[in-house]
Amino acid sequence: MKKMYFLLLLTGSILAFNQHSIAQKEPLTSKTATKDKGYTVLNPGELIVIYKYAHLAHSPKETEKYAPTYFFTSNASDVLQPLTKSNLKKAFPNNHPFHDALDATIKEDKELINYDNFHKMYKVSWILKQHS
Where in the sequence is the signal peptide annotated (predicted)? Predict the structure, then answer.
């Protein structure tokens, strides 16, 4: 009985600690997303600034497990958001021509990181530039 009580008490303490840690976590901003933390700015100075996060602490065998993830900021918000079509539309809620062009040009979220060699900028930035 004492063992069960101890396990329940320990489990409750761990859950309370985890909830407290999560609640205290501040949002990631362009100032806190540094190279030391694994973030790289791919296109500084554009309307949509894209960040690449590469997990630093893994072995070469686990490269596929830790694929890079992409985030963005806009002029409206300094907080990093996952780079998805849905989040881009939320970041520019009144720009319906941008929404339509995004839907017509980009079929899947993974295409959002495509680089336009002709215009020398990321495709999503070019689409926004054309519809601003």
Answer: 1-18
* Residue 30 belongs to some domain of the structure: no
DSSP, residue by residue, 61-109: GGTTTT--EEEEEETTEEEEEE--HHHHHHHSTT-HHHHHHHHHH--SG
Task: State the helix-helix crossing angle for 96-105 and 123-130, rounded to 10 degrees.
Answer: 140
At 29-57, the pLDDT tens digits run 777 778 878 889 999 989 999 999 987 77
**Measured between alpha carbons, how far is 89 from 108 in angstroms, rounded to an integer?**
14
Could you tell me the two tokens for 20? 């407290």
Domain range for 51: 35-130
CA-derived radius of gyration, the chain = 20
Domain count, the chain: 1
Is residue 21, in this structure, part of any structural domain at all? no
